[in-house]
Structures
1.
Amino acid sequence: MSDESHEAVHRHEVPTSFIRKYIFSLDHKVIGIQYIILALTAVVVGLTMSVLMRLNLSWPGTHWPILATLFPTGAPGGIMNPDFYLSLVTMHGTIMVFFVLTTAPQGGFGNYFLPIQIGAEDMAFPFLNMMSFWVTLVGFIVILAAIFVEGNSTIANSAVGLWLGGGSGATVGPIGGWTGYAPLSAVGAAAGPGQGAGMNLWIVSIAIFCIGSLLGALNFITTLLNMRTRGMTLMRMPLTCWAWFTTAVLALLSFPVLLGGGILLLLDRTVGTSFFIPGGLVFGSSVLTTHTGGSPILWQHLFWFFGHPEVYIAILPGMGATSHILSTFARKPIFGYRAMVFAIFAIGLLGFFVWGHHMFISGMSPYSAMTFSILTLSIGVPSAVKTFNWLGTLWGARIRFTTPMLFAIGFVSLFVAGGITGLVLGQTSLDLPMHDTYFVPAHFHLVMGVASIFGMFAATYFWFPKMFGRMMSERLGKIHFWLTFVGVYCIFVPMHTMGMVGMPRRYANFGEYRFLDSIHPLVVFVSIAAIITALVQLVFYFNLIWSVFKGKKAGDNPWEATTLEWNTSSPPPHDNFAGVLPVVYHGPYEFAVPGAPNDYVMQTDPRGSEAPVAEGTGGNGHNGHKH
Amino acid sequence: MATTVTSTRPLPKQGIGGGPKGRGPNGNGVPRNGRDRDFNDLQSSANRYRIGMWVALASILMMFTALSSAYIVRAASSTDWIPLKMPRILLLSTALIIISSGTLEAARRRLKDVAGNAYKPWLLSTLVLGLGFVGSQLLAWRQLVHQGVYVASNPHSSFFYLLTAAHGVHLLGGLVALAYLSLRRRAPRENPLAVAKAQAKADAVTLYWHFMDFLWIYLFVLLFYVR
């Protein structure tokens, strides 16, 4: 029997060649780091774009020589034209949502730590895991190609550009927003600059991304259901695992819908079908006669059926990491473990029934709107459960204010600050005037953008010692935290005010809107805050790279945490536990247990086990089982 | 071993045997968890193919649900919908794929007999029936093209081509899997894990194929009998 177990455990041998070890690796840890590097790269692109947008909004008409050099047609003489600005909006959103907020939390940290935390030697399907990363990378390359095919008039008008759908060279990609609303996205180059070849590549990129994410989700779910080690019952899993699992379920069920919608959209653009294009559209001076009868609202339904679960895909892993880290540094069990698990599920489940709240102004029946509104507001209940439990965990604790802990507390703060305006936007009557004002970006950036990123910062500082065997600099980490924390509030709180004044989002300039003149100083303030906050991230990047090589050596369990990843070496060996899978005796957050010698009890500690060992021994007479 | 007992303040080990058995105090896991691992490694390693297939089917189902809902909305909300006349050959397609599900099920059951090769003819006939289905679908496309009905002709034809193509692509994946099953070597009998895995893979492929069968019947009814 032991031979089979042996084979089951070491399903792939330790690779020796560089390519198999670091490039086309089957090891979930390497794949996780690859995802994180992808996200770290993509976020630079997305952040640069947001800074460019702020430059244009605050100081319109200013010459930026570097833009004149990089994008001679999109920013002639260094002044961005409006199409260029709109394409920045689109690509910033697309890259951030897909290639940062979906890749790092799930593909990155989830890939690295889910198998270790449940005591598995790897994912269930290592090959699919590898494919999921490489497919996602191809998606990223295609989205970058969408920038250049539209950003460069030579390429756009070349044979390649024309074959891909033609277009202008005046933008850096599609201009229709990350939601790709039809019919603007469906009629091709006639809809304006960026909507030709760039839009085609945009759709292809998203479709590729969907496939990559589906492979990942398949792996996560199967791994969690099938590969937990002995004693790791579902209710002994760390909350991070619950979060990754729920996220995977959401991805599994929502990405296929986007994929289906994307296929329909691509057919409308390339084959001439009319799924989303109504008849008689007028573009400039011409009437579109080739299409009839399609429904643009249909695209919105398909898109948001995916889009709303997507925001939970972005934030749930951050919630998991926050719960995990809060408990660890508060040195207290997480408050209400079971309630936390059910709250994650409730958020995930409700997330599938609220997509209509993105479409209140689409002319839907007031009855549907009310249904969507009530369901949306009901998400406040599990969200409040989570928040109360986080606060309950912190209450009366002797908190260790490490950098990961600061970011986790920052997550709670941002989640509350951003979530509270969700209650405003979730109500039809309040959403109608607020829709498409700066109130909306203010809301979702705080809650799904920055909060998720704070979750990932917390995760990075927390797990870096495990991943690289070295600590990150606490001093730099704290500088990074405080400047970023203050910075993001300076950026996004004023945006609420702008929204309430009636400042519409996605406008390249407001020169003609005199009623907004009085708010311009606030716009400039936000831009300065954004630029400073963006620059502060260099501290993080420096800390990251410096610590990989020069950081203080970390022990196996520098944070005195309890879960399985702290039970193996830093970094873990190829099969995570050096051939002996751990056996689990405890829940994941047993801190400050009365009578225990330390203030924490590892999950693998056999003493004080509440498990009914008496039912039969028959183990291998050893901690773990041998081969 | 050194890697498994580390913490900054290591706790002294106590003599122990095995982990918790049976139902854990806080809930229960799948068989591998909280039970005797040595026994369940077999089933567990093999089970991942079955679980993985169910999970994959959920996602495929969601895509076809999305396309179906688009179909229903588009059909209900438009005035330009011209119903297609059903190409008769689709009845043949339907018959072929239903029979193929039966033959594959027969092959799967015969695979449990570790010694024999009785499953082979059933598997090969499934493969042939599957190819026949694809051919029959292509003929249906040809018939429509001869009538001058193309993808962009009207919404019903768009959906017909789209849904048959999407189903066909998934079915081709099934055919590749069937080919893999027929070409692979038998798992050595003395290796129970390999046998369990081989059976699990066959189960997964069979499940997929049955799903493709039901999916086709569903699409067929949706396309031509729901109005």
2.
Amino acid sequence: MADATVNTAPPRPSGTRIDAASGPRGAKPRRRLSPGNIMLYGTLIVVALYYLLPLWVMVMTSVKGMPEIRMGNIFAPPVEVTFQPWVKAWAEACTGLNCDGLSRGFWNSVQILIPSVILSIAVASVNGYALVNWRFKGSDVFFTILIFGSFIPYQIMLYPIVILLREMGIYGTLWGLVLVHTIFGMPILTLLFRNYFSSLPEELFKAARVDGAGFWGIYFRIMLPMSLPIFVVAVILQVTGIWNDFLFGVVYTKPELYPMTVQLNNIVNSVQGVKEYNVNMAATLLTGLVPLIVYFLSGKLFVRGIAAGAVKG
Amino acid sequence: MAGNTRRMRPFRNIYAKIAALPMILTTLVVFVGGTIWTVTYSFTDSKLLPRLNFVGFDQYERLWSNSLWLTSIQNLMIFGVFSLVFTIGMGFLLAVLMDQKIRYEDTFRTIMLYPFALSFIVTGLVWQWVLNPDLGIQHFVRGLGFESFEFDPLSNPDTVLYGLLIAGLWQGTGFVMCIMLAGLRGIDEDIWKAARVDGIPRWKTYLFVVIPMMRPVFITVLVIVASGIIKLYDLVVAQTSGGPGNASQVPAMYVYRYMFTAQNLGQGFAASTMMLLSVLIVLIPWAYLEFGGKKHG
Amino acid sequence: MQHSISVKDLTLNFGAVSVLKTLNLDVAEGEFIVLLGPSGCGKSTLLNCLAGLLDISDGQIWIKGKNVTWAEPSERGIGMVFQSYALYPQMTVRGNLSFGLKNARMPKDEIDRRVARAAEILQIGPLLDRKPAALSGGQRQRVAIGRALVRDVDVFLFDEPLSNLDAKLRSELRVEIKRLHARLGNTMVYVTHDQIEALTLADRIAVMRGGIIQQLDAPQTIYNKPANLFVAGFIGSPSMNFLHGSVVDAGRAFTVAGAKIDLSAYDGGRPVDMDKAILGLRPEHITLAAEAEPGRTIPATVEIDEPMGADSLVWLTTGGTQISVRVPVERRLAPGTNVHLRVDVAKASLFDAKSEQRV
């Protein structure tokens, strides 16, 4: 160290290995508005518009009066907001048979939905549980057939099921449709539960058996409490699928029992004469409301349900 | 305690077997039994009620000489090919965009996926309205000053399928995008790093490394989308009712018409058997690819 | 003299968390440097910054005299080998090796020449037409090294390349890498959490913790003269013993367990009186004494002895701490025996208990 009494500045080191002042330093500058970013977000926004457009149109149309609609700007917000179309759609719209509006179809759908969801999930979850923890000879063969069966077009099984239901005396009734939904929900739900249960540690199951628990004991006391998320996913899948169903609703029920989707189609497509577009859109929105609410509330779980559906075989 | 606790074969694991009874019954009675039943009766001349009067390939001859059926098949093929290509292509491209570590990813995904939560009936009706020539998009654009703008797919027999396509894509692409995105996210990050060190630009990495790695995902999506297309029914009923005329009829509608309204069960059975065959054409090669060589169960 | 790699004041922040803190590091040409540390210490992060895969928050990176702070990985003159090999699964070995070169529009015969050279050096010639799935772990790692080789670069970066292999393969490939370095002479920066790899492969080791380089020295120096308590405890297996006591007599003696150790033979700085000091001794630097030797031995009680074939590891308590000592396996010691331990001060490390630095 230089002696403090000597009055000379320490010599500047020459030819330093690195001149620290030269060249780039620190964080790389990233332009927010680079051409790449503009294209990326631009495309995404255009795509988002494509998806949002119909929803916007649906809502807008359903709160306009008919004169305004006839003026023709489908995208414009209403000058005068009216909820009359909604009231009409719900309570007064005419299908071919009656003029009770969609409310009848709504309650039908609810009546169909609740037992179907409960029954299909109960059956499939027990199924999946049996397949994973209590395998028996041939169980996997049946499962494979079940999965393959889910790809087969429903049309091929439509009539035999009619006969089956007639023999059982429940053709045209609520329970007939519930049974149909249970049957056709089985493949994907069983797959869902089977995959979930096989991801649970086997030690849990073995420990319970050592403790003396049997088939149902383990199911209710161990499996169920651990499976809340997957049950929620199953409910989401079934609520969406059953509420949105059309074909089974039309084939296996009588007109008094038509679910909302069938009623909706009747209201919109079978009415002759003046079309009340605002009522139609209100009706359409009403029908889509339940699954949409489920969708928006469920977030990531919905995606999980889809992914499960895609991991077949 | 009594000595022998070993139960008879069928009674071992009895609870599981009882619990699995629904599955067993479903597969045997409904899936297998129902299919065999329908195929068998497609060789009969059942009209209003099924009857066991065999007439060989009669129904099939009638089927394939019925112009309505031929139109349905043609429509489905055209719609099917376009739908497959565009749904998977668009779904993949959207997934790639979403994979770029963007902000608001959840928002975008919510927007792209919500149509999937809707019924086909809702989808069909909404797009029927949007594509309305007098009051929908065409009218709107004309109102902007483009007097001769034409966009009326649903009224023209030659273009009605494209109207259906727009609606179908709207509903289905979000689903494919989610699955593709999950697949993309499953790619080991080190592979991306290695490609970057090698100096490979992003698009080439997607093309030559990522897509080949995602082959299983593509195949799965293909099978799911294809089997959905064959069952196409609700959307057509809602959006076009098969029209204009018969320009957008599809096989599923043919089946329904002959089975339930035209009182010609035999035709309906034959048509649905044909639908089954077409699905098998997709399924069997796929099953072979996935499980080829391995034993079932 | 130009350094191969120079890191100046490198800082990396993830939000509010500082992952790398004002790091400085100079690597000479042809040097094999190992970044060693526990998980989370920042060694892989530093490597990724060197590679250009991570953007830094402050500082500069120079490679071969060029400021590459903002350069893309492929422009930095580096090749990288990953823990998971990261081979392109759908391409053959040859495809993997040539993909980057083809992308750079290199003429075909130049590509072939480089691939052949890499294949010869790494002995993967017969594997050129196989796909990664058909290779063993060791073969895959060689191909991964080959991918870096064909780039004809000055600096190789290794990110825990042997961690995915079983023990036997690990030691085989370790030797291969050392041989490779001897043959090629490239600068190599190698990240690992395994001390053995570090001690055997490195010219110099950078021991890291919490985003800071604790010590940068040759392996033997790190082993013999660890710069602080952390390094001392991290390197060496079984780990160094730490005797807690005080330094008295104007820095001439260390008291513990009622005994006084003479510090005059200490190899290091000049000890000063400290209330709380720690004397670090490796198990092999403590021996059994027949009787108490003032200034050289401390008393201890045997807890357990673990015979290990060639010698025994004996665990004893002294001054409230448990320590381990190596003794010849014939000396069986019953638990509870009181013994005297002779400490080799010349090989010891004295630490200030508060600053944790070596004196």
3.
Amino acid sequence: MTNYPTDAEARLALHGVEDARQRVIDQIGMPWWYWWGLAACWIGLGVAADVANEWVTLAALLTFGAVHGMVSSRLLAGRQRTMDVKVRAEVAGRRTPVLIFGFLVGLGAVTVAAALLAYADGAEHPATMASVLVAVAILLGGPRLMAAIRTDAISRAAAR
Amino acid sequence: MSVAEFDELIHPATRLSIVALLAAADWADFAFIRDQLGLSDSALSKQLATLEEAGYVTIERPLSERRRRVRARLTPVGRKRFTGHVAALRGIIANAVPET
């Protein structure tokens, strides 16, 4: 005969379920090296734009785009921050790649705008200055963006 | 929408936590489950063996990785049972008579 729990026991069991789900949601994110690598590449491109000729800069930009495309195709969903667990797509949310891509496009626009401003101000290495500024934004903003995505995942889970 | 069905195999607290953890993931490493739930190796092995025997969980040992790993994954049957069990628990709470 099935021994059904009381409502208090059922509440406790559901609390355990939510706690376990929360532990997986906490794993949504990008590997630590992604933001550092991105920031380093951003500065490298900025330096190349200032000191190298246009073709070298273009080649560096295309190489960066290709490598980032390969890496991000596996990581951009934020489902595998570590090799310990792969978060389910519906738990991580479908918008994560779009948000990160939008973040990067926005940073690209900020880099160009900051470099133009620095150039107009007579700076000797405007692209380098702008890229360092944006690299800091990547290191500070990237993890914050992932934290916001985790908060969103918690809200969606609670609403179910 | 799953049918609410209480599952006695899943219900014990430790097993429910393991299944809930796996339900939110495509797969999870043995060490991850152990550390997150504060279990010993032997306790987790025992629970996973029970769930595997029931067809709720599959255990994988990827050979391609440098470190020897053991991964657990919820089967479609396990996922269905878990969803039904959670629905049953919610039903119990919803049908509870308020104390006067």
4.
Amino acid sequence: MEKNKKRLFGISASLILVLLLVLFGFWAANRAHENRMHQDTLARVKKTKTINWGVKTDTKLFGLVNTKSGQSEGFDVDLAKALTKQIGKQVGEQLTPTFTPVNASSKVQLLKNTNIDGVLAVMTITKERAKVVDFSKPYFPAGNSLLVKKDSGIQSIQDLNGPSKTILIALGTTAADTVKKEAPKAKVLALQDYASAMQALKAGQGQAIVTDNAILYGLVSENPDYHVVGGIMGYAPYGIAFDHNQPGMVRQANQALDVLKKNGTYNALIEKWFGQVPGLNLSELEVQA
Amino acid sequence: MMIFDHYRSLFISGFGYTIAASLIALVASLVLGTFFALLQLSKKRAWAALGNAYVQFFRNVPLLIITLFFYLAVAKVIKMTGFVAGTVALSLYTSAFIAESVRAGILAIDKGQMEGALANGLSYGQAMSRIVLPQAFKVAIPSLGNQFINLVKNSSILAFVGGLDLMYQGNLVAASSFDTFTSYIIVGLFYLLLTLPLSYGMQYLEERLQESR
């Protein structure tokens, strides 16, 4: 009898604890929600004199950590630096860029929690995402393509439309929608990031990787046994993401992007990062004056 | 709870894979762990050294590395999915800890039990399996309970190799709903759904066995 009482007490105590934890979770989520209603990104940036950008750490050509410096390097990172300088000029402040690593599942949450001010991390503009974040104008033209082993004989995504085929994607990318549309019968396996997807492809865990062509070219440059096939499936450009309802910051970013495109900085960065990539047509990426 | 309603089938299927992986790994690691505990206590030096080497290796290497080894390297020779690779790695990893718990349990049993059994004409194997091991497990139960709870939580390693488990689906939901917070809270509650009954079950078993002593 005594023991039963004790056990009952233990069970109810832990249930109460769980309940408290859940309540706390919702309270915190609610607070974060309230926060974002009142925080103006541009005002915060002016006050702290920094723009904290969320960037990738695992994506060659866009944001890949240099193992020596520990800093991300790539087109996104350089563009972020140039934008910070230009936005600083526009608002009359000396702004410095700082960088925070983000991944697919953390980037939006970090924006909402105001841990970062903007996301420059190969983020495709989609309708669903535009409901929760604000996008700038497109800053990079991209579209999903297919990476396969050279001797696999696979020519297009139709070759993979069967239940015995597995297509590898990176978590939280638009590739999931592309595969669902173009090869609905294939199995889709989401790996943590592009590097893991590449490792899994090499280990034979799938027949192809689907993701943006520019990223695939980055993977090819280190894995010459593989090539990009199948053309571009749908035009899906990247945008710079800010917290929802930030017209001031978005306007500044768009204006800065226009200036960088006009004064040649943008083309110089394209040249720097994509000039040496085989198979990529540079004139499709550069803006025409 | 809109997220749960919207992605219910993903969470449920992930929950199923997590239960499956946990159950398989639990049985496999208990069998392997007991085997290696006995090997460690073998009177033959070589066997004992082998058992010890196994335990030391698998409990001192991160689970993620064992998992990736099976998923990326072994899979080139023997085809296996992420689910299989993750479950095998989880079984091996946990078995090392279980071996230690069982070994401690056996050592806690008075030598006289074994000597008495042998004196009564039982073989070493019979004495071990019928006299010593049942008592040893009784002693080892609190620590085994710990290992089982860790095992269930560690099964989230499957997410790293596309193992379709609860954590994998949770990552997918977090990435596509943009509500990371709620997604992971739901995932956490599902894990509690497994670990809390397991916890109390082990406690109950412990009490029952105390009484029977």
